Structure formats: structure tokens, C-alpha cells
């Protein structure tokens, strides 16, 4: 793709986010066609030199990242954006920023509480210039403009949100450990996704009423919503869920089982799928076994049921198990990255995006967008930007003069 064609191509977003949560949310908007202008300080988003790095940068040290346009971490969450450099310590650059906001639909940021206000470019200043502006932010614990929090001034990262929400407590082996983080930074990714939804919702409201607004997403709140099962189990029965391990706390089978080369996911809680699984295993006797008569009874007899299924799955490879069960019962292999790149579904659904990096580098790949439309295709149309690559272009587009 070479131009914005998604359903949001009529909106402009000024992106002042850095690191992961905010940039991910802004990337979702950019994938959907929004004109996302990434505003960076002179030193750039600190995630630019983060690994993995292409061959051109192989000799660049972590202590001296100067000269690195961007690594895979930055590229993955800043595709489809244009970058401009503004120094908010300079009055001229603050005025340029406010001029951009005058013509934008939304501005997003993920700084600590009060940072943008102290710089003189916070929501109250921006809305005086553009009453229809939508101002979205991600904070660790929210912003006092919406609801107060005793932790409002605390800094936060993904791991903090995962832990405080209870996600780390129910993740990992079924033991009495202190907890395990998710394998991906879900404490950033999910708040970023909700921020994107908030932007679209608030712009919809602004277009209908002419009224802009401020909204925030607290990382703690987002992850608490993500972990709704923790809340409802305690809210109904005061049951504190423990670490899930490889299986569901209430359903069986509903988890991961071993094969001779890895593992497979099997989910057969209903009678129909349970019977099909038993027939495929050659264990029709389990269909009528009192220890297996429904999913809840099977969960109470997990040790027995798990042993019967594992004895069968562990005799085969992932492929052999999936070949036997695929299309009949809900199942799937535990994929490695190599498996994913070779999966025909991933290719057919265009979930791997390849592009050419600047400089003498090979083609690289990042994830594609999961949002597919029939009339307004979304996806990759512009490689991630070099620092400040589009400053002059954007200022000309917005008819803003920059003093030399």
C-alpha cells in the first residue's frame, strides 16, 4: 500500500506518545488510515534504538545508540506515521505544536500527570485553540481530570499494571509462586488498544455535537478490565483464583497438552466435542465414564482426565494431533515464531508485513493489522519514519512557518 485507505483516513491525530502503550494505540489508528503525526523531542522516542537491530546497526552499542534510525521494537508500533521534531522547551516549537492541534481531530500522549500542563501545552490550553479537540492520554493510574487516585503521581510500566490487576497472580504454573508476567507486554498493549477506541468514540461525539473532550485510560484500570474473571469470581463467591497453569480453572479439557515435539491446545468442554475427542483417541469408554460425564466433573477429576488425554497426545507430533482433530474439535498447535511465519493462515490473512528498511539492509517483517474491511482496506502503507523525517513536509501541509 502507498496511501491511506482505511476508514479513518479523514481524521488527523497528533501523537506525542513514546515507549509502547501510547505508540501501539496510535499505530492502530494509523493502520486504520488516520493521518498520524508523531511529535518527537530532538533526541527522539527512547525506543528507537531498541533491539532487534538490522545489520547496518550491528556494531552500535546500547550505551551509544546515536545513528540508529530504529530497531524492530520501534518499527512494529510506529509504522504508517510521519515524524516531526519539536523541542517543547522552546516557545516557537510550542506554538507550532498548538498550531498543529488547531487543525487536528485528536492529540494523544502517555506522559506522567501534569507534564504537558507544566510545559504550557496541556488540554486546557489546546481546547482554547480548538474546542472540538479530543485529548486522549494513558497514565499508570489515570488523570485527576476524570477520577482521583491515591497513586495518580506514581510512575508505572507494563509489569506494574500486570501485577496490580491480578494478571500476574493467575498466570504461570499452578503453584504458590509470587506470580508470572505474560509473555507479551499486555499491560501496555491493552491500554493502548483502549486508547485507540476512546479516540474514535470521542471524535464520533465531537463530530455529532461540536464538543471535544479529555479522556484517559489508566493502565491499572485497563488490566483490571482485561482480568474480569478475577473480579467476577470474587464478586460472586469471594473465590480468589490461583495461577491457571496450563488448564482452565472450571472447564476440562480446556488447556495445553504435551506432544512429542511441543504442545497443543484442546478445548472440548461440551458433550459433542468431548465425544469426538474420545472417538479420535480410540477411547469411547471415556464418554460414559462417571469421572467424565460433563466438563465440571472432568475438572474435579483433572488428574485422571489429563492423564488419559496426555497419554494420547504425547505419542504424536503437534502436526499429527492437529491433522487428526482439526476441523472437528477446537484445537491448535503451540506455535513458535518459525511456525507462525510458515502458517498458511498467516499468509492468507496478510498478518506478516514486509518492508525495506532505510540504508543497506535486507527486507524485514513486522506484524500486520488484524482489522480487515471489505470497502476501506486498512494496513501498511508507509514504513516507520526516521527521526524528524517529515518535519518540513508536515509544516508545509499545515501552512505553518518555522523560523530558522
Most strands sheet: 6 strands, parallel
CATH topology of the largest domain: Rossmann fold
Strand order in space, largest sheet: 3-2-1-4-5-6
Overall pLDDT: 94
**Name of the CATH homologous superfamily of the largest domain:** Crotonobetainyl-coa:carnitine coa-transferase, domain 1
Number of helices: 17
Q: List how many beta strands DSSP finds.
A: 11
The CATH first-level class of the largest domain comes to Alpha Beta
The share of residues in extended strands comes to 5-15%
The low-pLDDT segments are none
Label the structural class: alpha/beta
Q: Specify the helix fraction band.
A: 25-40%
Shape: elongated
What's the number of domains? 2
In whole angstroms, the N-to-C terminal distance is 35 Å
* Order of H and E elements: EHEHEHEHHEHHEHHEEHHHHHEHHEEH
The CATH architecture classification of the largest domain is 3-Layer(aba) Sandwich
How large is the radius of gyration? Answer: 25 Å
Give a written overview of the molecule.
This protein is α/β, with parallel strands linked by helices and 404 residues long. It folds into two domains: 12-226 and 349-397, Crotonobetainyl-coa:carnitine coa-transferase, domain 1 (Rossmann fold, 3-Layer(aba) Sandwich); 254-336, formyl-coa transferase, domain 3 (2-Layer Sandwich). It is built from 17 helices and eleven strands. It has helices at 21-31, 72-78, 91-102, 115-118, 123-129, 158-164, 186-209, 219-226, 228-237, 271-281, 285-288, 295-300, 302-313, 318-325, 337-342, 344-348, 391-397, and strands at residues 12-15, 35-40, 82-85, 106-109, 134-139, 213-218, 254-259, 262-267, 331-333, 352-356, 363-367. The protein has a six-stranded parallel beta sheet, with helices on both faces. Strands 7-8-9 form a three-stranded antiparallel beta sheet, covered by helices on one side. It has a two-stranded antiparallel ribbon with strand order 10-11. α7 crosses α8. It is elongated, with a radius of gyration of 25 Å. The chain starts with 11 loop residues before the first strand and ends in a 7-residue tail after the last helix. The mean pLDDT is 94.
Amino acid at each position: 500500500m502507498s496511501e491511506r485507505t482505511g476508514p479513518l483516513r479523514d481524521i488527523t491525530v497528533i501523537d506525542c506518545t513514546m515507549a509502547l502503550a501510547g505508540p501501539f494505540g496510535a499505530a492502530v489508528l494509523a493502520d486504520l488510515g488516520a493521518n498520524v503525526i508523531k511529535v518527537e523531542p530532538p533526541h527522539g522516542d527512547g525506543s528507537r534504538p531498541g533491539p532487534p537491530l538490522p545489520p547496518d546497526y550491528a556494531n552500535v552499542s546500547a550505551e551509544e545508540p546515536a545513528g540508529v534510525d530504529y530497531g524492530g521494537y520501534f518499527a512494529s508500533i510506529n509504522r504508517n506515521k510521519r515524524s516531526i521534531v519539536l523541542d517543547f522547551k522552546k516557545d516557537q516549537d510550542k506554538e507550532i505544536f498548538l498550531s498543529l492541534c488547531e487543525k487536528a481531530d485528536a492529540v494523544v500522549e502517555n506522559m506522567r500527570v501534569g507534564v504537558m500542563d507544566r510545559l504550557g501545552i496541556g488540554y486546557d490550553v489546546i481546547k482554547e485553540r480548538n474546542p472540538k479537540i479530543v485529548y486522549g492520554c494513558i497514565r499508570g493510574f489515570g488523570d485527576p481530570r476524570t477520577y482521583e487516585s491515591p497513586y495518580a503521581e506514581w510512575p508505572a510500566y507494563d509489569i506494574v499494571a500486570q501485577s496490580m490487576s491480578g494478571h500476574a497472580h493467575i498466570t504461570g504454573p499452578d503453584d504458590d509462586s509470587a506470580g508470572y508476567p505474560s509473555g507479551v507486554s499486555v499491560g501496555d498493549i491493552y491500554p493502548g488498544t483502549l486508547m485507540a477506541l476512546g479516540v474514535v468514540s470521542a471524535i464520533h461525539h465531537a463530530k455529532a455535537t461540536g464538543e471535544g473532550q479529555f479522556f484517559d485510560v489508566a493502565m491499572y484500570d485497563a488490566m483490571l478490565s482485561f482480568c474480569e474473571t478475577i473480579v467476577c469470581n470474587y464478586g460472586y463467591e469471594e473465590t480468589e483464583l490461583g495461577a491457571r497453569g496450563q488448564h482452565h480453572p472450571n472447564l476440562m479439557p480446556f488447556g495445553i497438552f504435551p506432544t512429542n515435539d511441543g504442545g497443543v491446545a484442546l478445548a472440548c468442554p461440551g458433550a459433542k466435542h468431548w465425544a469426538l475427542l474420545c472417538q479420535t483417541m480410540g477411547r469411547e469408554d471415556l464418554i460414559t465414564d462417571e469421572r467424565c460425564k460433563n466438563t465440571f466433573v472432568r475438572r474435579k477429576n483433572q488428574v485422571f482426565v489429563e492423564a488419559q488425554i496426555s497419554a494420547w497426545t504425547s505419542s504424536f507430533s503437534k502436526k499429527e494431533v492437529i491433522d487428526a482433530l482439526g476441523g472437528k474439535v477446537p484445537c491448535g498447535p503451540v506455535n513458535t515464531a518459525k511456525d507462525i511465519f510458515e502458517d498458511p493462515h498467516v499468509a492468507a490473512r496478510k498478518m506478516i508485513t514486509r518492508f525495506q528498511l532505510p540504508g543497506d539492509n535486507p527486507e524485514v517483517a513486522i506484524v500486520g493489522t488484524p482489522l480487515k474491511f471489505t470497502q476501506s482496506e486498512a494496513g501498511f502503507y508507509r514504513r516507520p519514519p526516521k527521526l524528524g523525517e517529515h518535519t518540513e513536509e508536515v509544516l508545509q501541509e499545515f501552512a505553518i512557518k518555522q523560523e530558522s
